[in-house]
Amino acid sequence: CTTILIVSATLQDLNRTTTVTVNNTDSRAPFNDVNLYTLDQRILKTFQNPEHDGSQGQQLIKDLCDYKCFLEKMITHLEKDFNQKLLDIILSQPPQYIHFPYDNEQLKNAFSWSEDQTEYLDYVFESSFLLWKRLEQLREVKT
């Protein structure tokens, strides 16, 4: 029975694609396993129409953290080994969610969040915004 579970898990791992992997990422995921467009669209959709569903709120925080983590890894990578083409590709699809004016109270009520959770959302959102600006600065400095 244990052997079957191990084989099953191995087959699932082999069948993952880059797009699917985004649903299973955590902050330790390599940056090439993250589909930024998918994350951005999910975050934007949740900001635009939050449902009264705590799991959607948890997914929102996870997606924001994954996006932030990806940006941190990209900046670190580009600062060590600058690649103009890679930077241009990343900057060609800026996150749409950063420009959406989300409503803290609406999210707090929809997801039954505490004040700490909404403050954490603000922190991760602001960090992502600043990291994106840092990527834009890298382009200006390197060109």
Write the layout of secondary structure elements.
Blueprint: H1 2-15, H2 18-21, H3 36-48, H4 54-80, H5 84-91, H6 104-111, H7 115-142
Helix pairs in contact: 3-4, 4-7, 5-7
Determine the number of helices (DSSP H or I, runs of at least 4 residues). Answer: 7
Largest sheet: none
**Residue-averaged pLDDT:** 79
Shape descriptor: elongated
The number of domains: 1
Helix content: over 70%
Structural class: mainly alpha
Task: Characterize this entry briefly.
The protein has seven helices and no strands.
Describe the structure.
The chain is built from seven helices and no strands. The protein has 143 residues and is mainly α. Helix 3 packs antiparallel against helix 4, helix 4 packs parallel to helix 7 and helix 5 packs across helix 7. It is elongated. It has one domain.
Features:
elongated; disordered N terminus; 0% strand; 143 residues; mainly alpha
